[in-house]
Amino acid sequence: xxxxLQSGSEVRKPGASVKVSCRVSGHALSGLSLHWVxxxxxxxxxxxxxxxxxxxxxxxxxxxxxxxxxxEDTSAETAYMELINLTSEDTAVxxxxxxxxxxxxxxxxxxxxx
Amino acid sequence: IVLTQSPASLxxxxxxxxxxxxxxxxxxxxxxxYGNSLTWYRQKPGQPPKVLIxxxxxxxxxxxxxxxxxxxxxxxxxxxxxxxxxxVGIYYCQQNSTVEWTFGQGTKVEV
Lengths: 114, 111
What we know:
The complex is a heterodimer.
Chain A: E1 3-6, E2 10-12, E3 18-25, E4 34-40, E5 44-51, E6 58-60, E7 68-73, E8 78-83, E9 92-100, E10 102-105, E11 109-113
Chain B: E1 3-6, E2 9-11, E3 18-24, E4 38-43, E5 50-54, E6 58-59, E7 67-72, E8 75-80, E9 89-95, E10 102-103, E11 107-110
Parallel strand pairs in B: 2-11
Antiparallel strand pairs in B: 1-3, 3-8, 4-5, 4-9, 5-6, 7-8, 9-10, 9-11
């Protein structure tokens, strides 16, 4: 059973950045492809990017290229998503998620840009 | 890959069947030959999505057997054979046959 535990809600002003963490238990982070997805009422689910497995290689959605950075600290079994140059359009719930046979999701991190 | 769900909303009497469709703009057959990389979720307010069906037709552990998934290639269906009060929520299909995952826009199921 993989558990993904995300950091708490964040409030930022436009132009600022935010970094959300996702702690993995039940499986070695290094062996997972960890995806980041956000959800907003206006846009629904949007895939942002993926990191891993093994080499921490990243692939980003074109929409977020240059604004998002996915990193991981395998010693802490924790992955991070940093989004810069925030606007009100970035107000959303951000999820880390992975598939190991079935899908596993974090509880979500609400980011408000205002 | 674009996933189009229908209908956008659905009101079904308790005990009746609910059917949700998901059409993909291209095949979601896994390049590894494992099957169709299509997952069905239900989401309730303030909660993350809950996996119901994966690989298009496999029921997640603990999911009641009134939920079933079918289809292949580009056309998929989620069926709730006998709607119960706990089944209300928004249902989404999602494909992971490509690195860039995509989701349907959701189907709201009400009693």
